[in-house]
């Protein structure tokens, strides 16, 4: 800036520029960046320069999360069962645990074994809720059932800090020092009279042999009102590394959940969430869940978040990358008509669509099995209406002996695909046979 122009521009002191004229002083206390009052500071004091304009003030409200985002809870968590009666397909386990709580015959150690997503950790939490519930069996409920509403139940269900219910991940706390620490903590009494201390150890098969040995004594002679629940997807590993432990635990085997039961539960969830979904879409999600309710709810959450509008079968296929019924129909056609020229175009279409050829072979085995079942007088289940129509159409051109031969070839190829360096060639050779 030229000196002449600069000389003509009035320069105000920083204090006056920020605080304003002394004639307009106010007596209101200053507030810091987080809205904290400074009672000893006034607008006209020596600290007036701290009273920066709103431009420099950071307001706490700017960091508040909107109510819309606060309500975004994963469906698998939102619809997790709160009572034994809510456990789907695991009625045999629910009845045994409920009866043990009601009759005061709770064991000191349990082993919950089964596939992922079938309710092992959930059942352990419900057991912990029932043991420490403040209103167990109230309002005409079943004996041994937690109320699911009291403060104790709420803290367990939400995973909040709790002195009496502790969840541990054995995948990251698997050593002997971790086991010794757990053993020492279990020696302390519960926080109040009549309460139980419950230790839920997830992925228990990850514990080392030394860790199991450190827990052996306390599982044999546990303190009063202490319950251990070990959840695992691979019980055979525990049998290999810590066989003596199994004799000290009550074992419950959780079953896979069938696609019909998963689809029924998904229907209840979409109704509660006011989401429009057709039956074929829910069936595809249930089948993709592979027996796990948690996986089914997670997939539904993913598909709903994909975009606006109803949940359709086309959207599910797009999100999950599923192979269309049309391609399986083409497979049945070329096999029934013995059309080797159509093999290479079919595989080309699969590759262009980005399909997993290994998944295609698995699906081909399921479709051929359904054709064989139809030939033997059975009724195939677990398929869409379009796929059932195709199976019925090609049932007669594919006699049972031919289908059995094809299934034998498919079963031989499945393990080979995992180690094959050229899965495309392997699939083409399968179809040519």
Per-chain topology:
Elements: H1 3-8, H2 14-19, E1 30-31, E2 37-38, H3 67-70, H4 75-78, H5 91-103, E3 109-113, H6 120-132, H7 151-158, E4 165-169, H8 176-186, E5 197-202, H9 209-220, E6 226-232, H10 235-241, H11 243-246, E7 250-253, H12 259-272, H13 279-288, H14 293-304, H15 313-320, H16 325-336, H17 343-352, H18 357-375, H19 385-393, H20 400-419, H21 423-432
Parallel strand pairs: 3-6, 3-7, 4-5, 5-6
Antiparallel strand pairs: 1-2
Helix pairs in contact: 5-6, 6-7, 8-9, 12-13, 12-14, 13-14, 13-15, 16-17, 16-19, 17-21, 18-20, 20-21
Any overview of this molecule?
- The chain has 433 residues and is of the alpha/beta class.
- The chain has 4 domains: 51 residues, no CATH class; 179 residues, Rossmann fold (3-Layer(aba) Sandwich), CATH 3.40.50; 54 residues, Orthogonal Bundle (Helicase, Ruva Protein, domain 3); 106 residues, Zinc Finger, Delta Prime, domain 3, CATH 1.20.272.
- It has 21 helices and 7 strands.
- A 5-stranded parallel β-sheet has the order 4-5-6-3-7, with helices on one face. The protein has a two-stranded antiparallel ribbon with strand order 1-2.
- Helix 13 crosses helix 14, helix 16 packs antiparallel against helix 17 and helix 17 packs antiparallel against helix 21.
């Amino acid at each position: 800036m030229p000196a002449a122009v600069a000389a003509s521009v009035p320069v105000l002191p920083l204090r006056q520029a920020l605080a304003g004229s002394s004639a307009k002083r106010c007596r209101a206390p200053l507030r810091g960046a987080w809205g904290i009052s400074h009672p000893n500071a006034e607008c006209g004091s020596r600290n007036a320069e701290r009273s920066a304009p709103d431009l420099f003030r950071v307001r706490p409200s700017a960091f508040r999360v909107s109510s819309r985002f606060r309500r975004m809870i994963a469906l698998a968590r939102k619809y997790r069962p709160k009572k034994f009666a809510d456990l789907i397909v695991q009625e045999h386990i629910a009845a045994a645990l409920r009866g043990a709580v009601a009759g005061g015959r709770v064991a000191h150690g349990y082993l919950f074994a089964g596939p992922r997503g079938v309710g092992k950790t959930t059942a352990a939490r419900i057991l912990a809720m029932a043991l420490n519930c403040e209103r167990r069996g109230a309002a005409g409920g079943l004996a041994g059932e937690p109320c699911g509403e009291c403060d104790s139940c709420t803290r367990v269900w939400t995973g909040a800090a709790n002195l009496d219910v502790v969840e541990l991940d054995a995948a990251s706390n698997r050593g002997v020092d971790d086991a010794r620490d757990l053993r020492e903590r279990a020696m302390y009494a519960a926080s109040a009279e009549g309460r139980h201390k419950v230790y839920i150890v997830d992925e228990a098969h990850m514990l080392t042999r030394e860790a199991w040995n450190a827990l052996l004594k306390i599982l044999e002679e546990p303190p009063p009102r202490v319950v251990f629940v070990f959840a695992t997807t691979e019980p055979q590993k525990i049998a290999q590394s810590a066989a003596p432990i199994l004799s000290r635990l009550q074992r419950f085997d959780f079953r896979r959940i069938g696609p019909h039961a998963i689809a029924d539960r998904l229907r209840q969830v979409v109704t509660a969430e006011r989401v429009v979904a057709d039956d074929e879409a829910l069936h595809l999600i249930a089948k993709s869940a592979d027996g796990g309710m948690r996986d089914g709810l997670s997939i539904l959450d993913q598909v709903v978040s994909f975009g606006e509008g109803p949940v359709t079968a086309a959207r599910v296929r797009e999100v999950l990358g599923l192979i269309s019924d049309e391609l399986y129909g083409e497979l049945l056609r070329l096999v029934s008509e013995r059309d080797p020229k159509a093999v290479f175009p079919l595989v080309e279409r699969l590759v262009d669509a980005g399909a997993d050829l290994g998944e295609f072979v698995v699906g081909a085995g399921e479709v051929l099995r359904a054709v064989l079942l139809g030939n033997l007088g059975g009724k195939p289940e677990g398929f869409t209406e379009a796929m059932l129509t195709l199976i019925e159409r090609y049932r007669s051109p594919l006699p049972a002996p031919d289908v059995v031969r094809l299934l034998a070839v498919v079963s031989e190829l499945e393990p080979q695909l995992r180690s094959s360096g050229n899965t495309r060639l392997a699939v083409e050779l399968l179809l040519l046979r």
